[in-house]
Fold this protein.
Amino acid sequence: MGFDSATAIVHALTPARSVAIRPNLRRAAMIGNFPPRKCGIATFTRDSFESLRSAMPRTAWSLIAMEDRSGGHVYPKPVTHVVPQDDIEAYERVADDLNLSGVETVFVQHEFGIYGGESGSHLLVLLRRLRMPVIVTLHTVLEKPNAIQKKVLDEIISIASAVIVMSEMGADILDRVHGAGPKKVHVIPHGAPERPFASTELFKAPLGLAGHKVIMTFGLLSPNKGIETIIRGLPSVLARHPDAVYLIAGATHPHLVANQGEAYRESLIELARSLGVVEHLRFVNRFLGDEELVDLLQAADLYVTPYLTEAQITSGTLAYAIALGKPVVSTPYWHAKEALADGVGVLCAFNDTRAFAREITSLLSDPAKREAMARRAYKAGEPSRWRKVADSTVDLALACRSTHEIRKEEAFRNLARPKLDGVMRMSDDCGIYQHSRFGAPDRRHGYCTDDTARALSLMARLASEGVMEAPALKLANSYAAFLNHAWSPETGRFRNFMSFDRRWLDEGGSDDCCARALESLCLVAKDWPQGDLRDWATHLAREAMQHVSEWSSLRSQALIIKACIAGEGTVIAEDEVRRHVYDSGVLLMEALRRGRADGHNWFESCFAYDNARLPEALILAGERLQDPDMLSMGLETLELVMKLQTTKQGWFAPVATSCFDTNGADHAHFDQQPIEALATVDACFAAWRATGDTHHCHKARLAFEWFGGHNVHGLALARPEDGICHDALTVAGVNGNHGAESILSYHLAAASIREFLIRQPAGAT
């Protein structure tokens, strides 16, 4: 067959069309199969990519090709990543690369079988890590999915900014089966080539089909295509039209070839031979290029899709035939029932050879009827031209990008406004329980002053925001009573651990515990409205302040600096503030100098816990004292800890509970705990207030978003709807427990974010 001359005819008939420059995505990505893999998804991915690239000529692309288990494909230059379908780590790497490269939208071609894991579940590993809008095109929509298929697709739909289906039936199934309504699901037809409407006779001669009436089927050959239905009807058709030929174009499906070779094709030939019609069969047994395929289609008088079952939501071959103006005779599978309405084509019952023979004969016998149906089909196919499909897809992508940014900001602000339910659940009239077992307070571990002080600090922060609701007031009084009881005038320390039966388990808490209690008292003295609770906090803070010289730990020095600055003018006079802030600042500077002399660029030999508190304290001290050295050292050490707490993918990964080398070597990433995120948020905001550099605001936001799922697992630790926070991010995911320290770290970080949102400068978010 000579295709060159047919293609020349097409080019002569096709008018030149200028490409309008439309709004652009700066960078986009597409995931799916890609040629040279020989399957419909690969062809669709390539065509979709090319059409979108034409619609957005200034967009830079990342193209990800899924590789099947056979491997060995050599992909062309547009492909930037190849992902073996069973390699989970490859999915993670691609997601990280896309995040780092600044991709604004990811287009995903979805078919259960092209991704690894049960029902293609490996795809979720990739999607969960992505930070940008995801638009998923579903090539299969099952009315009765199994449990795993439903679970996987439910999550894909949940993650996606938009889901594209190619028929109204697909949208209906997604609504009924998966609860995905019109806000999420968009109907955009299967793309098809754009060619002028032309006579079949122009194409027959170059293809060796002159003088024949051509009935055609194309696509990867497999038993579900129902080819036997047409072959069995050929004797009846040929009785009226002896010049008819049945053209079957396309290679046998690769999976069928791998298992059975060409046995199925040979069975079709044998069937035709037994019926005496084998001379009227034409096979094109290869995977066809676009131009070659379209030339064949334009040479066809009729197109047939005698598929055997109705559960086919999309047929690319049908879309091609309609777009090229082919009269179609088909079984009533889902896509065909929808696409062939209004006289666009003719439907015959499944496996009804007589009906197919009758309708084919009727159309071949009536050129006027056939011509009218062809023109209706060509008109009906207008929305499916790749140009139109690309325009619709780009419009959707631009809308998703805009909506994504709005929703991202809404989610951030919602995360910063947690309800107090989680705090209240962990509290009673004594104080706040240390630990929980999942959501239940664990009484075996009792209470501690560390956590109760944090809880009282939170109440003071809420008071500064004007939140004086009854539940918060009741909690504040309970926490105050606990700290009052914890104070021991004899030792000048706060006891720390109390059993559930109200017995103190120590005579005096750590330096850190005492300083943390002092800070909470100073915050109440500063922020609580006039009244008994404020007076109590002021009095007890003054008493405790007399003992700060006895506390020597590094974090207690950091907390003393914060307490003094908070308590200035209420608890402590200005000159005393300067003295205590200077003394504590000097101790921190000396520790840092010793660390550097010992080869560590840090205050200690390794990172421990609540690490960003140390840089924060130096920043606060340097600002308060107008000491450039303290401020500089604080900013430098904060930059160091931020560098170590930021993954190469750009996620915040707080210092794990296990210490790690400070010189940039590989380190343990788990367990990541909320207290580190809180300390980092506070330190970054301190740096911003001291310098005015909004870079620190972005870092604070990065640390806070860790609570909401912007982390190495893509899993949220915090729930704003009830204000709980899980205890850690572990190797396996989130720790199921949510104790006091974790919940309070989340709430205190949220309070810092709310304060920032009130004061934020332009461009800081």
About this structure: The longest strand covers residues 60-67.
